[in-house]
Write a structure and sequence with these properties.
- A hairpin with a 4-residue loop joins strand 17 and strand 18.
- The strands form 8 sheets. The chain has a 16-stranded antiparallel β-barrel. Strands 1-3-2 form a 3-stranded mixed sheet, covered by helices on one side. Strands 4-6-5 form a 3-stranded mixed sheet, with helices on one face.
- By secondary structure, it is α+β, with helices and mostly antiparallel strands.
- It folds into 6 domains: 2-88, membrane protein fhac (Ubiquitin-like (UB roll)), CATH 3.10.20; 91-168, Roll (Ubiquitin-like (UB roll)); 174-259, Ubiquitin-like (UB roll) (Roll), CATH 3.10.20.310; 265-342, membrane protein fhac (Ubiquitin-like (UB roll), Roll); 348-420, membrane protein fhac (Ubiquitin-like (UB roll), Roll), CATH 3.10.20.310; 424-766, membrane protein fhac: a member of the omp85/tpsb transporter family (Porin).
- 18% of the residues lie in helices and 43% in strands.
Length: 767
Amino acid sequence: MKKIVTFFLFLFISFTTNAESLTVSDIKVEGLQRIAPGLVFNNIPFEIDDPIDDINFSKSISLIYKTGQFKDVAIEREGSVIIISVSERPIINEINFYGTETFQPEALLQGLSLMNLASGLVFDKTVILRAEKELKGQYIANGKYTSSITSEVVPLERNRVDINFYVEEGRISRIKDISIIGNRSFDSEELLGNLTLRKTNLMSWWEKDDRYSKQVLKGDLEKLRSFYMDKGYMDFKINSSRVSISKNKKNIYIAINIDEGNKYTFGQIKLKGNLPDTLSLAELENDLLIRSGDTFDRSKLNGSSTKISKKLGNYGFAFANVSPVPNIDKINKIVDFTFFVDQGKKIYVRRVNILGNEKTKDEVIRRELRQLESSWFSQEKIDRSKTRLTRTQYFDAVNIETPSVQGVSDQIDLNIKLVERNTGKLSIGAGVSSSEGVVGTLSVSQDNFLGTGNRLATSISTGDINKVYSLSFTDPYWTEDGVSRGFNVYKRDVNTKELGTGTYDTASYGFGLNFGIPLTEYDTFSFGATIDMTELDLGTNAPLGYRNYCASVASAGALKCDSDSLSFFSAWQTDSRDNMIFPTAGYKIAISADITAPVFDMQYFKINTSAEKFFPHSENITSRIKGSLGYADSYGDEIYPFFKNFTAGGSSSVRGYKQGSIGAKVYDSTYGGYVTYGGQKKITFSAETFFPVPGMKNMESFRMSAFLDGGGVFEDSFNGSDMRYSAGVGATWLSPFGPLNISLSSPLNDDELDRTEKFQFGMGTNF
């Protein structure tokens, strides 16, 4: 009996010892087609020679699943060999769209790639369901609520699949009506005019403002709130906004329920806080846009805070905090405000970083900056730097950020982010009149030549009146302090028979050199000289004034003469306009004078003055007034050259009249009609209001105008009867091909001898 017990004890010990010592002798992976075994081995928590009893098979399977490469995983043991069986997920071969018209397939594929759904990636059915939902949302955002999206997975050989999306876009659901409930102080039409969303109208095909969007509606509700808050209703509330759609999903109805509340006025306005020694609270009070007794206006309240913050920013306090705290008297409907001012620390700029300039050199950008590195922060200088960069016309966008320097409380960096524009221009211009037909011009220029900021331009005019060939070059920073230098060469032929100013032709050749000196941020003084050689060819029966001039520089009775000159010019200009294409504020004044040296035939002087000022009425409406005066005369015993006379009429002076046609008329037998001499005195003026296209006020690239022009030229004294006036409308569109300008004018006091031109246009493209 004792021997039997000993035998069984031996067997138990032997079995236990063998079990504890059993280890993994091999690991096999089955089912792989394209995936390397290493991916599996790297994601299992065991290896050869590890004890089998220590293996967590469930955890191992989970880790392999997490790679996302397999749709099925199983682990088995045959003795000491671990067998891992896998089934790979298929690879996406192609993604196809059928029935899409609203969106291009390329755009849809790009969007799906952000969801990890693209050719070459592992197929995941859950992603397909998300993609269907996302595509459906895109169509709903475009107003197509009846759209449907279905998908199909097509298996292919070598464990690949094609994914097909079938789209039924359906029709666009449009806003049928927007109603506002609860308004008493303002009618619904006025309130709806402030919203972006519109019920279907004549311009909806262009604006697409009759397509519902949740985000746009959210913005419109805020616009409605701002409208009331700016009109004094500081406790205005939006009770609800409800959106419903018709059963056929064709029409959308929006109902906005509001509570206007009470109208408030400003009471006492106070300022408190700490300020730099150079600035007092009394000075800041002048920056307040609100006064006691005024109707409450949230925009002016916020504007006051912003204006004070900017002023403190000009003293180096970039993070000044201005907090208006109200004290509301609901019984008397009065609200007092105390502005608490905390100047914070004085900040200086550590570094200026320029981003986004691929063509334009850094030095071209830095020379326009007024906020410099290692100097105290100035909001005024930063704003001016942005304006100067914008006015170069080298960039589509200029954004300036001022992030704090980590770990330092009194330093910031200036990050200038730029979006460059194509500064090469190919411009084509044309005019249409009843007498002349179409006249064309062509010019090619590069305002940022090789990224240096230099301007190179050539121009060709092929009209029946003027044929011009010119080449010019300007270096705006010939010296480091901003002195410019430029030159131009030209050949100009003028055929006045088509112009109606007399029967003569001129052929001119010239070369000019000019310099410009910046006096202030806005003022420039320029000067230069031009050598001009002009050949004059008169008609057989040219007007007496023309023949007298040729007789004075050639001989009596001469119909051909040469008239050369060396002229010097000087000019002063101040320009504070905020934009070169669509100015909304600022002014421009220019005075120039030309005088010839008494070494050649022409001896005369010429003075020009012009001014224009812009008046912003609202965010989208701006008015401009401009005018010009000119005076010229000869000196010594010479006769003033008639072909240097001032002229008026045309797209740049008095629209509605043909170029150069305004002024006294004389009969020219050679021409067979009346011609215009021009004159040695000139006056022009214009009043114009710019506004968005009705129904398209959010389209920043399109602007219309209504104008009134007037002007005249005079040989002797001013004569009001020789003044001409016109009125009309114009439009400017920043098209993909460049600016397109159109004007339609109507003369107001023309007579039978005037030559009118009602329609003009010009267009160009950038390259």
